[in-house]
Amino acid sequence: MPHDHDHPHDHDDHAPIVEDATPGYYEVMETALRELLIAKGLITAAEIRRQIEVLDSRTPALGAKVVARAWTDPDYRARLLADGRAAVEELGISVYDDTQLIVLENTETMHNLIVCTLCSCYPRPVLGLPPDWYKLKPYRARAVSEPRKVLEEFGTVLPEGMEIRVSDSTSLVRYLVLPRRPEGTAGWSEEALAALVTRDAMIGVVPVTLSQEAA
Known about the structure:
single chain, alpha/beta, two-stranded parallel ribbon, 11 helices, globular
């Protein structure tokens, strides 16, 4: 709600900001497990805090950097498609878990779409947290059963003859889409190209396009 700050008021009079909602089952279980691990000396509060900071530092800008490098460096693109994890680590992007990263290239005849049918497995080291819709059951089910319709709902209408390949992420294998480079970007710098690449393009629900301003 809008709040007019023209009138004087004393911030000390404000009620303290506290969590007044009753914790849910999973929140209680997470707290209990975390406290147990700390009590047994298996992990420290500082280590948990550092891991949270690592997760918070990851954004789609990292994946966009990878895509832009692959578009401009054929040798890097080949290494990326051969071993995604090793290639992203070349750019200083650490993969902080034991997952494998497979990069799938969109072509004139093939479009890749990523889903996790069981939960929300996602290439977090290069994209950060997944969008809410990626975790919803309708997307997880329909991306597999009717991917073309799902893509159309994102505004992505593919040619009738183009193959759509849906890849199901797991706890050990994560996927990243290498989208097609848009026409009209010859000679662009990596930084300019990376600015075009969106999170949704690296999941496979939309293509990379030139904005009106960039065009």
